């Protein structure tokens, strides 16, 4: 009998992260899903998938809680680490009119904090066929920049750069390292104006993650697996 695969999904209380947790559970994976507070969606998911979902707590902005999670999960082997947590603020503003604190919040939560999670947990991801993924965005592509949500976009571009730098620091690593762009999806962040439903995006995102297992290297990919310009 093959052992069940394990995914750690960081930032899974709602939206895309909760859907990722559900999709991996549905595919028979063991899922460790985190939230920073109470998460009724995860409670319901655990009830629907008995024995498949563990619920952990972490606020990725708080390095002490990230270290504490790492200590609790120290012995766990992961097939997938997916850091999904993110925020969007001041979407329509520019560098001259944004409240500086809003910009810095995004740089911390969307770029620095996810990569601290990757730095701490990457060794637990299977060294042969493991996948390390962060939730980036199509609008984090500098090559395709069009000015949409430019401050948020720049935090995702920073995330991409930190991921690329992480990868460059680990030459010869056989894990797949992915910056994933899920499309514009109807969630609290994506708003009801978005073009995709969660069900149009997340099953494809999980297909891409599964398809990249055993394919070493750094890639910025959309939900169809197509490579995007950095
Ligand atoms: N929706 C889109 O169209 C779209 C497109 C491209 C990329 N993305 C990215 O996809 C990811 C998920 O977005 P979403 O649309 O699902 O947004 P969402 O509905 O606003 O959910 C954001 C998730 O991130 C968590 N989170 C935020 N800050 C956190 C922190 N400091 N520590 C731990 N968890 C934290 C939230 O937890 P709480 O419940 O505790 O707030 C929530 O689970 C984000 O990285 C986002 O940038 C979204």
Structural class: alpha/beta
Major β-sheet strand ordering? 3-2-1-4-5-6-7
Bound molecules: NADP nicotinamide-adenine-dinucleotide phosphate
Q: How many domains make up the coordinates?
A: 1
The ordered string of helix (H) and strand (E) elements is: EHEHEHEHEHEHE
Low-confidence stretches: none
Shape: globular
Number of helices: 6
CATH level-4 homologous superfamily:
NAD(P)-binding Rossmann-like Domain
> What's the CATH architecture?
3-Layer(aba) Sandwich
CATH topology label: Rossmann fold
- Which whole number gives the mean pLDDT? 97
The CATH C-level name is Alpha Beta
Kindly state the percentage of residues in helix: 25-40%
Radius of gyration: 17 Å
Distance between the termini: 41 Å
Strand content: 15-25%
Q: What is the number of beta strands?
A: 7
Largest sheet: 7 strands, parallel
Task: Please describe what this structure looks like.
The protein is of the alpha/beta class. The chain has a single domain (6-222), classed as Rossmann fold (3-Layer(aba) Sandwich). The protein is 38% helix and 16% strand. The chain is built from 6 helices and 7 strands. Helix 1 (15-26) packs across helix 6. The mean pLDDT is 97. The structure holds NADP nicotinamide-adenine-dinucleotide phosphate (NAP). Residues 11, 13-17, 35-37, 59-61, 84-87, 109, 135, 137, 182, 184-185, 187-190, 194 line the site of NADP nicotinamide-adenine-dinucleotide phosphate.
